[in-house]
Amino acid sequence: MKKITIAIDGFSSCGKSTMAKDLAREVGYIYVDTGAMYRCVTLYALHNGLFDKDNNIDIAELEKRMPQIVLSFSLNNTTGMPEACLNGENVELDIRSMEVSKRVSHIAALPFVRRALVEQQRRMGKEKGIVMDGRDIGTTVFPDAELKIYVTANARVRAQRRYDELKAKGIEADFESILHNVEERDYIDSHREVSPLTKAADAIELDNSRMTLSEQKQWLLDRFHEATEQ
Ligand SMILES: Nc1ncnc2c1ncn2[C@@H]1O[C@H](COP(=O)(O)OP(=O)(O)O)[C@@H](O)[C@H]1O
Ligand SMILES: Nc1ccn([C@@H]2O[C@H](COP(=O)(O)OP(=O)(O)O)[C@@H](O)[C@H]2O)c(=O)n1
Q1: Which of 77, 95, 151, 200 stands the most exposed, by the fewest C-beta atoms within 10 Å?
Q2: Taking every annotated instance into account, which residue ranges of this chain make up the domain Cytidylate kinase (predicted)?
């Protein structure tokens, strides 16, 4: 069967990566979490003192250092899922912290950061057979993707899902701060100048507020079969 490119975009914490991972596993495609890449650059900036005490970014220094920021994914043999590495170090857990979540949308709005990461993402998807999730995959990274999904869900539902996830991982979490962060990121991501989050004209929209994990998995699998049978 011919391999296609699948782009899954949408708001923060609505289940994009869960759906993308489930589908990739089911159909034997590569899965790429592009949010993890923006989170890694943010973690690098945090670890290297590129934010001042008011959270302003040293943009000139970050731009100079971009070529030194090497992002990769390594396979977790237990889960079978790729985990984010920053300059060779596995940072999968660190990049999910609120410290990173609070700053990532500001980093992701910088044009030189987007240019560098989009280039890497296009390289990763060159052979097709890929499920990539993010904010600009169907609009900018792969505008010709054969299957594009745009996911939404009620903000409180999304914040609750993220809260439950952080708790389960043993990461300190507070529902109101998560809700605030989810809404703030949605706003910044949808209003930035370069590749703002928006539904591609040919994307299929899914509101999964009231869907179970298995219902949304099946829904996506059905869309995949429709797209590959054409
Ligand atoms: N339909 C659903 N019902 C309940 N929880 C869900 C559903 N979809 C995803 N989740 C959970 O919500 C959290 C956020 O999902 P995730 O896939 O990381 O979102 P995104 O990639 O959009 O940020 C995860 O803990 C995931 O297990
Ligand atoms: N393709 C992408 C993916 C993420 N991002 C940025 O990276 C942030 C983190 O993405 P994410 O997918 O990990 O976010 P969650 O919804 O999983 O919390 C987003 O809020 C965006 O600011 C982006 O700008 N473009």
Answers
A1: 77
A2: 6-216
> How many residues are given for the chain?
230
**Ligand 2: nearest atom to the Cα of 9:** 1
| C-beta of 213 in contact with ligand 1 (< 6 A) | yes
Ligand 2: centre distance to CA 113 (Å): 13
Q: Walk me through the domains of the chain, giving residue ranges and CATH numbers.
A: 5-215 (3.40.50.300)
The answer to whether residues 50 and 64 touch, using CB atoms and an 8 Å cutoff, is no
Token reading at 219: 């829904």
Indicate if ipTM > 0.90: yes
Question: Distance between CA atoms of 221 and 126, rounded to whole angstroms?
Answer: 22
What would the pLDDT profile of 192-215 be if each residue is shown by its tens digit? Answer: 999 999 999 999 999 999 999 999
Q: Looking at residues 55-80, what average pLDDT do you find?
A: 95
Burial of 7 (0-12, 13-18, 19+ CB in 10 A): buried
Q: In the numeric block, which tokens belong to residue 200? A: 């591609």
Question: What number does the ligand 2 atom closest to the CA of 182 have?
Answer: 18
Nearest residue (by CA) to ligand 1, atom 20, is 13
